[in-house]
User: Fold this.
Amino acid sequence: MPTTEALQLQAQQARRPSSAGASQLRNLLSDQHLSRQSTTEPSPPAIVLPGVHDALSSKIFAASGAQVLFLSGFGVSATKLGEPDAGILTLSEMESVARHVIGAVDKAAGTKATIPVIVDGDTGFGGPSNIRRTIRGLASAGAAAITIEDQVFPKRCTIAAGSGVRVVPREQSLERIKCALGARDEARDLNGNDVLIVARTDCRAALGLEEAIARCKAYEELGADVVYAENLQSKEEYVRLRSELRSDMPMMLAQVQQGSAKGASDNDDSVFDAQEIGDMGYSLALFGVTGLQSYVHALQQSAEGMLRPSASPAKSDGKGGGVLSGNDTELLCSFVTLKDIVGFPEVDDFESKYNVDL
Assistant:
């Protein structure tokens, strides 16, 4: 007969959230490394890591076949607050969105393989206790991995800041990662919430390539699960960084596709695709705001078409006055598709089984 203490322990373990996301991410990264060891097969492409910003964008990418998702601080700050990625978003706001995103992804995946979600942890939102709370809170929400970077607080989007980006000294950046790793181990050992730590440096633009390499090597030695450097300046720099770390250390390469100015053509030839990134030895290809850029562009086009006066001669096929017509209708999914994506069929199926009338 189990003791009361044993029963309490069993009940506690039963309540622990699943660590399936972290486990799946480890498997994917391990498979990437093993595939790269083949002497007869070409290097595998890096795993495309789309940035998402809310539950709906996450469901769409999950349903479209994404293997891993990245919950972007830039995206959440933009869509939840309408504010730039400048240290304005709080941990509680990020954690709330993370819970909705991970829940939506789990629903979208259904009985298929778990889709890990890597969550942007920024600088950890403060000192040691703040970093600890960030890691354990996001791990409890179901994050597969959490990024921690070396900017000063409040941080700014590295690409937007350019050479004006401000980072803490190397010793402080190492202490930040040590703290995150300690919190990772607590989350696993005390709460059963497995999670990976992605150690990131943003120092390239301000301090140069050699410092970025030194920090990445130090993060590797500390035991980070994934390492990456933001905003390197060329393919040669990415190849050099990759060569300085162990071949079995998973690495991420992050890019922003600039997009086209109105009336101009820009194919972004300087942006590496997943195969090119895999050929350089990187496991994850992060495109953190491409989905958000598409979302903003579609809304801008829709707003312009809807708010054009009905009698406007601007377009021969245009109704305006709230109605999209002509080429603008290509911005619209069907209403049936919209209902499917948000989950009406699943809700209707569930409710049809129960005769509950309030």
Observations:
- Confidence is low (pLDDT under 50) at residues 5-17.
- Residues 198 and 226 are 5 Å apart (CA to CA).
- The first helix runs from residue 4 to 15.
